[in-house]
Amino acid sequence: MPKEYKVMIVDDDFELCRFMSQFLSRQGFLTFTASDGEEGLKKTEEICPDLILLDAMMPQMSGYEVCKRLKDNEKTRLIPVIMITGAGEKEMKIKGIEAGVDDFITKPADHEELIARVRSLIRVKTLNDQLENVENVLYTLVNIIDAKDSYTRGHSERVTKFALVLAKEMSFSRENLNLLEKASKLHDIGKIGVPEAILNKPAALTEEEFNEIKKHPAIGEKICSPMKTLGPILKILRYHHERFDGKGYPDGMKGNDIPLEARIIAVVDSFDAMATDRPYRKKLEKERIIAIFKSGLGSQWDEKIANIFIKMLEDGKVEF
After folding, report:
1. Which active-site residues does the annotation give?
2. Among candidates 67, 53, 45, which has minimal Cα distance to 11?
3. Residue 310 phi/psi, 5° resolution?
4. N or C: which end of the chain has fewer CB within 10 A?
5. Domains and CATH numbers, the chain
């Protein structure tokens, strides 16, 4: 392997822990051990291992609870977990799958099986890390675009924050929140294909200039389309400027044909535009923003989503 990968072994059986640690060390891995769940969680935060070997049955905190907490934590959810179980314990494996376990190995661990499963999941982790690095490059490009204009600096970060607050109010699942977060961060990446003079123009745009701006959702979709991991957000990027009445762009999509996430971004994107200073006007007061939203219910914005956001504004749940 090109680098020394880190493996965390969490097991209250000292002898088994020592055996696996020594064996994996001889195979070129850097190993760490923990004798209980709390220690395992703490060391995972400190060390950030590439893989975790986790005993199913431990005192105080079971391996299932440890795994669930790892998978619920944004910082550790992508670390592969191999759970160590007893032979033929089907119910334990089902419980492990529900907790987010990636693979299983049965006690006593066979040498060849152990190393094969560890290497297989570390390869997957390495690929995920590479894809995440590429996505981070795209996020950086968006931040560069935002930073070129003092009026839009931080726009994508704010839109992401508002979108997630709104989606949580709508009881989105963790998986759908992650999808929305990616789409919100990248919703304006297509502006990299729009001339800077148009993006930064301190006055109203001409019709021709606005037509150039209207190209950015399709450009964004095209930029992200080569990445399979971004496949689920492509339509969100393309349709985030569609209107509920079908008068938006680029395709004139209408109503519920517009992806739900795109309808959410349409609301919070408009909000951020109204709630920040622009070259042609100062930011609007909350009462004025609410009035504009109410006037566009069912036409510019999905009425249900916009009403939820209006209520959040009225209740002070949106900070700006």
Report:
1. 191
2. 53
3. -60, -45
4. N
5. 6-127 (3.40.50.2300), 148-314 (1.10.3210.10)
Residue 247: both structure tokens together: 């008068």
Q: How far is the C-alpha of 144 from the C-alpha of 188, rounded, in Å? A: 11
Radius of gyration of the chain (CA): 24
Residue 258: its pLDDT value, please? 98
| pLDDT one-digit tens code per residue, 276-317 | 987 777 899 999 999 999 999 999 999 999 999 999 999 999
Rounded to a whole number of angstroms, the distance between the first and last alpha carbons of the chain is: 48
Q: Compute the C-alpha angle 98/100/102, nearest 5°.
A: 120
Average pLDDT over residues 78-85: 92
Longest dimension (CA), the chain: 75
Distance in angstroms (rounded) separating the CA atoms of residues 57 and 270: 51
Residue range 193-204: mean pLDDT, rounded: 83
The model carries a pTM of: 0.69
Handedness of CA 226, 232, 235, 239 (dihedral sign): negative
Say if residues 298 and 245 touch (Cβ distance below 8 Å).
Answer: yes
Picking from 229, 159, 166, the residue whose alpha carbon sits closest to that of residue 188 is 159
Residue whose token pair is 């304006």: 188
Helical pair 155-169 and 111-147, crossing angle rounded to 10 deg: 120
DSSP state of 194: S
Pairing mode of beta strands 81-85, 51-55? parallel
| Alpha carbons 153 and 33: distance in angstroms, whole number | 45
Quote the CA–CA distance of 37 and 76 in Å, as a whole number.
14
List, for residues 215-239, the tens digit of each pLDDT value.
999 999 999 998 888 999 999 999 9
Q: What confidence score (pLDDT) does residue 1 get?
A: 44
